Amino acid sequence: MRKRVVVTGLGVVSPLGNDLETAWTACRSGRSGIGLITRFDASDLKTHIAGEVRNFEIPSVIPAKDAKKMDVLDLYAIAATQQALDDAGLKITDDIADDVGVSLGVGIGGEVTLEKNVLLMEEKGPGRISPFFVPMILPNMAAGYVSLTFGTRNYNAVTLSACASSSHAIGDAFRHIERGDAKAMIVGGSEGALTKLCMGGFAAMKALSTRNDAPEKASRPYDRDRDGFVFSEGAAILILEELEFAQARGARIYCELAGYGVSSDAHHISAPTVEGPARSIRLAIKDAGATPDQLDYINAHATSTPVGDINELRAIQTVLQDHASKISVSATKSMTGHMLGAAGAIEAVLTVMAMQDNFVPPSINIDNLDPDCELDVTPNEGRERSIDLALSNSFGFGGTNASLVFRRLKDV
């Protein structure tokens, strides 16, 4: 029999704020976290805006000398994990460490370290490369440092699948607990690749918004005049536990993680299909033992690109049929920007909070709704709604798709 899996803790480091309460309050109120780039001089780029993490403080669990050996994505991951463990009231003592693992998603890796050391080498030679360069650029060190910091001794890995990375990481950990291989998992994603090189690369693809005169209005899924996504950074962590383990220790339970679906478009590295995302959504709902007409809310992948936003809505319509007009959809990237490998994680956290509060967050910046948008995308203002079954989508370059289904815990 499959073990049941529940969410007991949440942690956030994001453009909306560096803790759960601040980020969720901003999301509920429809406040954008996007601004002009301060991290580097972006004046010679076409895009001057991003979703930066501001006022970040190195977590108290990391000695200052050790923090210097870590890339920023590792620091974000540890900070969000510390919050999530505190929120869950879970202390990883020696008697449970073998049953607790880490599964994180990262889209790019230690890009800040990479760019800094390449420039240093070009300027002063290879002798100036940091001896910690290699571990600092390895994406898997985000999970490695979380495991080292908090003493977990079970599964320890990072999933890299572009913008679907952290949803895959969450889903894979879900399976690990389901089959009885762990009692609890630290899951989510981290991304700290906000550098000039990465920004320049996405700009070269013409993927980024250039609405530089109004940064807070630049990320605008479903608006007729959207012109690309907004690059962001941060981390989000969830604590997953086997239901009986959580109950035995008296944990507060947010909800149940009930379903996980994956698929591949097998079509193009960046141009999506309707069929691939539809399969992912359908499989996640089936895995949850639910039917499409039971779904209440979807936190969409919706990045603010002309093709991708509508393509996802058509996938939703393909699966839900007539019920599609009865659900609420929102694009929280309109506020957070696109956190790349951490996008699925922050959206999973916001989906759980939407269910917790019975509140659908808005899709902001919709001044002129795209005429091809036929579903209720919660334009500009959030609203109260009972949410018992919710879905979060993540799709990535390479045609990779992942969907997660969360259910209100009722029958225990």
TrEMBL record:
Gene3D superfamilies: 3.40.47.10. PROSITE patterns: KS3_2. Its EC number is 2.3.1.179. It is an enzyme of class 2 (transferase). Pathway: Lipid metabolism; fatty acid biosynthesis. InterPro entries: 3-oxoacyl-ACP_synth-2, Beta-ketoacyl_synthase, Ketoacyl_synth_C, Ketoacyl_synth_N, PKS_Beta-ketoAc_synthase_dom, Thiolase-like. SUPFAM superfamilies: Thiolase-like (SSF53901). It comes from the Bacteria. Residues 2-408 form the Ketosynthase family 3 (KS3) domain. It catalyses: (9Z)-hexadecenoyl-[ACP] + malonyl-[ACP] + H(+) = 3-oxo-(11Z)-octadecenoyl-[ACP] + holo-[ACP] + CO2; a fatty acyl-[ACP] + malonyl-[ACP] + H(+) = a 3-oxoacyl-[ACP] + holo-[ACP] + CO2. Keywords: Acyltransferase, Fatty acid biosynthesis, Fatty acid metabolism, Lipid biosynthesis, Lipid metabolism, Transferase. SMART domains: PKS_KS. Belongs to the thiolase-like superfamily. Beta-ketoacyl-ACP synthases family. Involved in the type II fatty acid elongation cycle. Catalyzes the elongation of a wide range of acyl-ACP by the addition of two carbons from malonyl-ACP to an acyl acceptor. Can efficiently catalyze the conversion of palmitoleoyl-ACP (cis-hexadec-9-enoyl-ACP) to cis-vaccenoyl-ACP (cis-octadec-11-enoyl-ACP), an essential step in the thermal regulation of fatty acid composition. NCBIfam families: fabF, PRK07314.1. This is 3-oxoacyl-[acyl-carrier-protein] synthase 2. It comes from Pokkaliibacter plantistimulans.
